[in-house]
């Protein structure tokens, strides 16, 4: 009970600190939030219809301005209507506006809010007036529309604040936000959307004057990668536009005509058949057939699949994949061709006011031509940036891809033809073999692109409807999944001699206490141009995750960091140095990178080590008990040790893994495979019966071509054997290696564990960076995983030897990639975790 109360008290203190932080750091934003809620509650009580009252008296719009309600650009930004609007506005103020204000200060925030709200509203109203010249229908709707809510000044303030951000986030905020706002304006098309876009433009222009310009950092890796990210953002945003129009029945923008890509038909097969029986060449018959093609769940999903496929291609563009670029260009060319063909057939050749293109009853040149503007713009962007997408998949990847796609097409074709013959009476016109074969390619095409073709037959039963509508869906699912799979394959082949070359360099020069881990299997290698340094890494989910820092002359470390980062970026990977020492952290800090502590290395200097005094009582007790029990420490090499010894070691290790119920972790934690190395020494605790009670493995640490120390890696103890075996083995190793002239022992680092900092909570609350948030999150994850892997207990165990503590860091150039980096680290440590093991892990965490 006391523990529960203590936790509640701690959480209350943290919540109170966060509240104080918000009140002190964002007074303007929180004051406007309070005004919005107070006015909303009071208005709901005092008026019969708060929404209509606000729209009439306080919302900004052309009509209110015509009635001289000139205060509306101000009042529209502090009021809101509707539960959804209140909730979304609150979240945006807390998650976006308040952090911005904390960053730039309340005075600048106030200026940014006032200027972007007022000027953005006026500019948006002007754009709405001009829109009527381009599209009379849209302009009329904008003329009658009103806008209210704090979203306008939130967007404007964010864009203004981007002027003071570093290059990376400045570009991402601006490109991502503008892409989203333009899509909302063109597809949604409400006055609120137009004013938001105008506020962003005002913020972009006024931002440097309001918050100043940030110093532009030196160019280091990422320019090409960032270009890929930005192009991917543009492709993804323009892909989501038709979906937005489709699922927004109130969308009125000029591109909202694309909603009929996904529409349903109000007519049944029998009704269409009756219409066509009377007048088979009439427009009503043609329209009915078209609507049947576009109706139903299957056609709707099939119409969505190209957009989903383009989103997958956008992910490939983010990774710099050449195939994604080629496929995106092809898709945009096809979209342009279809739009131009429709324009030619449905507008020019018709010569009258009749058009069924996307359901337009009153087509104009502008409204018929507008759908191909988006793919043309995206195509121009892709062509202009083609040099950025030069990453190829491993050899044979796309040969297997096309073979699998062809096989899927053939199998589905056989199913379609055979099913159609078996259920021939389920169609309005029973088809023959050749009719089914001729129709099958059409089944793979989204139905909206078949609007010019008359269907030979239509399904008239549940079974034939499933066959007719879902064959194409299955085909697109296969293509999309296979395409996504090609993007996650590493863009390199296996390097057969790289590991040996790395081992030779490490032995000839040197590295950190953990550098021997770079020789482990699973690593790939980048070698410096002069061949004297290297970085070991592995690519997981697009992240180039290093195993420690650079290996080679310390004077070349900075060049190695920069060179590896450039190499990673050129391949479409996010560079991340993991488990590096303070000197590498200093280098990356100087390059403008971010970093967080991920472990604590424990080091025992051996020059004057003597296990005397009260602080080493536990260690001396373990050594004395070993003597009494007849247990001795013995050096072995695992590869050449007697089978009786290695079998016991294997059994001890397997038992340990089985007790955990989770797979053995890898990456920076070695297992049996890693100790089977001629240069790795193992110290085992054996008794007079040659029973192995425990084992430790020690990796060499080189400096200037000589071994100066040893690093602890593998630790296992027999569950029912000599209990203080680990204390005994580490103490014995320290004394024996001291006699051999070693300078130090590293007891290695414990992932997700570090020495507690009594000021940690206050420092974390004072910070506002994503890195700080992640560091706190890792701290929580470390506590959560403690019952399973015991990293914190391991660190506490090592404290018995009174070591020196040296922090180990993770450094990265792109804070926005932290989710991907976290995923890569998890998969690096647990690459083979099964679903059942994941369930057990979650259950263990919940039980604690």
Helix content: 55-70%
**Count of DSSP H/I helices:** 33
Q: Characterize the biggest β-sheet.
A: 11 strands, mixed
The assigned structural class equals alpha+beta
Give unreliable regions as ranges. 216-222, 261-266, 349-362, 757-768
Percentage of residues in strands: 5-15%
Gross morphology: globular
Distance between the ends: 15 Å
The strand count comes to 13
Task: Provide the gyration radius in Å.
Answer: 33 Å
- Overall mean pLDDT score? 78
Brief overview:
By secondary structure, the protein is α+β, with helices and mostly antiparallel strands.
Provide a descriptive summary of the structure in words:
The protein has 848 residues and is of the alpha+beta class. Among the domains are: 2-217, Up-down Bundle (Rhomboid-like fold); 256-486, no CATH class. It is built from 33 helices and 13 strands. The strands form two sheets. It has an eleven-stranded mixed beta sheet, with helices on both faces. A hairpin with a 2-residue loop joins β10 (692-703) and β11. The longest helix has 29 residues, at 106-134.
């Amino acid at each position: 009970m006391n523990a529960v109360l203590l936790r509640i008290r701690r959480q209350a203190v943290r919540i109170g600190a966060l509240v104080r932080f918000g009140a002190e750091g964002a007074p303007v934003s929180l004051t406007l939030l309070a005004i919005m809620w107070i006015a909303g509650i009071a208005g709901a009580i005092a008026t019969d219809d708060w929404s209509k009252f606000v729209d009439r008296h306080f919302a900004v719009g052309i009509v209110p301005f015509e009635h001289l309600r000139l205060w509306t650009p101000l009042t529209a930004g502090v009021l809101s209507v509707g539960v959804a609007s209140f909730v979304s506005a609150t979240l945006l103020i807390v998650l976006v506006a308040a952090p911005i204000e904390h960053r730039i200060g309340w005075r600048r925030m106030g200026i940014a809010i006032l200027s972007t709200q007022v000027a953005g509203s006026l500019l948006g109203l002007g754009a709405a007036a001009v829109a009527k010249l381009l599209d009379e229908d849209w302009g009329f709707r904008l003329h009658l529309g009103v806008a209210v809510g704090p979203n306008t000044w939130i967007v404007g303030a964010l864009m203004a604040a981007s002027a003071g951000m570093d290059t990376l986030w400045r570009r991402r905020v601006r490109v991502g936000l503008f892409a989203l706002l333009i899509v909302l304006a063109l597809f949604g098309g409400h006055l609120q959307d137009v004013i938001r876009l105008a506020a962003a433009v005002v913020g972009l222009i006024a931002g440097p004057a309001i918050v100043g310009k940030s110093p532009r950092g030196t160019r280091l890796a990422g320019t090409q990668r960032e270009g890929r990210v930005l192009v991917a953002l543009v492709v993804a945003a323009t892909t989501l536009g038709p979906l937005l129009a489709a699922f927004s029945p109130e969308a009125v923008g000029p591109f909202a005509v694309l909603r009929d890509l996904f529409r349903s038909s109000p007519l049944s097969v029998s009704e269409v058949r009756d219409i066509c029986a009377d007048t088979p060449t009439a427009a009503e018959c043609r329209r009915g057939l078209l609507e049947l093609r576009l109706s139903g769940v299957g056609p709707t999903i099939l119409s969505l699949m190209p957009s989903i496929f383009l989103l997958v291609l956008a992910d490939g563009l983010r990774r710099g994949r050449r195939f994604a670029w080629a496929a995106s260009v092809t898709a945009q060319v096809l979209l342009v061709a279809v739009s131009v063909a429709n324009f030619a057939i449905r507008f020019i050749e018709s010569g009258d006011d009749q058009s069924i293109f996307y359901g337009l009853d009153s087509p104009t040149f502008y409204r018929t031509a507008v759908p191909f503007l988006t793919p043309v713009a995206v195509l121009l962007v892709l062509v202009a940036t083609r040099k950025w997408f030069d990453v190829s998949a491993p050899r044979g990847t796309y040969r297997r891809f096309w073979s699998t796609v062809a096989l899927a097409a053939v199998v589905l074709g056989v199913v379609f033809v055979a099913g159609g013959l078996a259920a021939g009476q389920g169609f309005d016109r029973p088809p023959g073999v050749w009719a089914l074969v001729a129709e099958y390619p059409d089944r793979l095409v989204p139905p909206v692109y078949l609007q010019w073709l008359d269907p030979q037959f239509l399904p008239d039963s549940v079974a034939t409807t499933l066959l007719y509508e879902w064959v194409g869906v299955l085909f697109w699912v296969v293509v999309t999944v296979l395409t996504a799979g090609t993007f996650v394959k590493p863009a390199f082949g296996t390097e057969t001699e790289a590991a040996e070359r790395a081992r030779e360099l490490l032995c000839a020069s040197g590295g950190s206490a953990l550098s021997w881990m770079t020789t482990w299997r699973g690593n790939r290698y980048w070698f410096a141009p002069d061949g004297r340094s290297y970085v070991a890494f592995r690519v997981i989910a697009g992240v180039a995750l290093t195993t420690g820092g650079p290996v080679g002359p310390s004077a070349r470390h900075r060049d190695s960091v920069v060179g590896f980062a450039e190499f990673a970026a050129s391949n479409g990977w996010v560079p991340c140095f993991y488990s590096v020492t303070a000197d590498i952290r200093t280098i990356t800090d100087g390059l403008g990178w971010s970093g967080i502590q991920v472990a604590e290395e424990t080091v025992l200097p051996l020059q004057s080590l003597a296990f005397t005094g009260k602080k080493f009582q536990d260690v001396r007790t373990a050594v004395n008990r070993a003597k009494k029990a007849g247990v001795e420490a013995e050096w072995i090499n695992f590869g050449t040790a007697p089978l009786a010894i290695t079998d016991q070691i294997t059994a001890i290790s397997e038992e340990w893994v089985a007790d955990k119920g989770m797979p053995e972790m890898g990456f920076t934690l070695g297992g049996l495979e890693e100790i089977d190395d001629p240069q790795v020494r193992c110290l085992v605790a054996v008794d007079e019966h040659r029973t192995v009670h425990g084992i430790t493995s020690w990796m060499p640490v080189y400096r200037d071509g000589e071994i100066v120390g040893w690093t602890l890696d593998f630790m296992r103890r027999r569950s029912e054997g000599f209990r203080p075996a680990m204390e005994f083995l580490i103490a014995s190793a320290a004394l024996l290696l001291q006699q051999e002239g070693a300078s130090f022992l590293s007891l290695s680092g414990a992932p997700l564990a570090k020495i507690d900092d009594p000021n940690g909570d206050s420092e974390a609350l004072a910070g506002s960076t994503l890195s700080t948030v992640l560091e706190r999150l890792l701290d929580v994850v470390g506590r959560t995983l403690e019952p399973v892997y015991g990293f914190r207990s391991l660190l506490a165990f090592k404290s018995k030897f009174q070591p020196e503590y040296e922090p180990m860091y993770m450094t990265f150039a792109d804070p926005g990639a932290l989710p991907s980096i976290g995923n890569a680290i998890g998969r690096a440590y647990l690459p083979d975790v099964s679903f059942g093991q994941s369930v057990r892990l979650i259950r263990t965490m919940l039980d604690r």
